[in-house]
Amino acid sequence: MPRTVIKTDRAPAAIGTYSQAVRAGNTVYLSGQIPLDPDRGELVTGDIAVQIRRVFDNLTAVAEAAGGCLDDAVKLTVYLTDLGNFSTVNEIMTEYFSEPYPARAAVGVASLPRNAEIEAEAILSV
């Protein structure tokens, strides 16, 4: 099955050896997004809610570049350096996703790239 790389300037450019997303058939694999401002290439400042929204804004931009939206997500994985922020993720998810919500995992991690507090990746069916 051929693969197509998805790229948009509305989300941060890859900071490593990966693509923002890859389409294989009707499935789109969105790489993990941290709360980087796509214009400045720096982490957003503010509380965890600001950071979570930036992550979901970045995922939204990549999903749209692939011809989809976050409601096309069938799987979401969220990585948090503090699982105490899990309830805030749940609250903000309702701003970006509609029911039926995607399958999801929340994983507590020791650290993330650029000392981010959150990273999220998704799989879409479009």
Low-confidence stretches: none
What is the rounded distance between the termini?
16 Å
Shape annotation: globular
How is the main sheet built? 6 strands, mixed
- How many helices does DSSP assign? 2
What's the overall average pLDDT, rounded?
Answer: 97
CATH class assignment: Alpha Beta
Helical fraction equals: 10-25%
The CATH level-2 architecture is identified as: 2-Layer Sandwich
Helix-strand pattern: EEEHEHEE
- Fraction of residues in β-strands: 25-35%
Spell out the CATH superfamily: RutC-like
Topology:
Elements: E1 3-6, E2 21-24, E3 27-33, H1 48-65, E4 73-80, H2 86-96, E5 103-108, E6 118-125
Parallel strand pairs: 4-5
Antiparallel strand pairs: 1-2, 2-3, 3-6, 4-6
Report on this model:
There is one protein chain. The protein is an alpha+beta fold. It has a single domain, classed as RutC-like (60s Ribosomal Protein L30, Chain: A, 2-Layer Sandwich). It is built from two helices and six strands, in the order E-E-E-H-E-H-E-E. It has a six-stranded mixed sheet, with helices on one face. A hairpin with a 2-residue loop joins strand 2 (21-24) and strand 3 (27-33). The two termini are 16 Å apart.
Concise structural overview:
It is built from two helices and six strands; from the N terminus they run E-E-E-H-E-H-E-E.
Keywords:
126 residues, alpha+beta, 60s Ribosomal Protein L30, Chain: A, six-stranded mixed sheet, 2 helices, 6 strands, globular
